[in-house]
Structure formats: structure tokens, C-alpha cells
Design goal:
The longest helix has 24 residues, at about 1-25. The chain is built from one helix and no strands. The radius of gyration is 11 Å and the shape is rod-shaped. The chain is mainly α. It starts with a helix and ends with a helix. About 90% of the residues lie in helices and about 0% in strands. It has one helix at about 1-25.
């Protein structure tokens, strides 16, 4: 359970970073 939570957090963090990069690019 903890492991899955960490994976979810990581995915969320990456998604957020991607969105920020995309925003900066535009």
C-alpha cells in the first residue's frame, strides 16, 4: 500500500512538472 502511494505521488509530481514545462514552453 505504501509503495503504491509513493508511486502515485511520483506520477502526480511528474505530471505537475510536465504541466509546468508545457506552460513555460507555450
Amino acid at each position: 500500500m505504501d509503495r503504491q502511494d509513493k508511486k502515485k505521488d511520483n506520477y502526480k509530481g511528474a505530471e505537475r512538472q510536465s504541466a509546468i514545462i508545457f506552460q513555460r514552453k507555450t
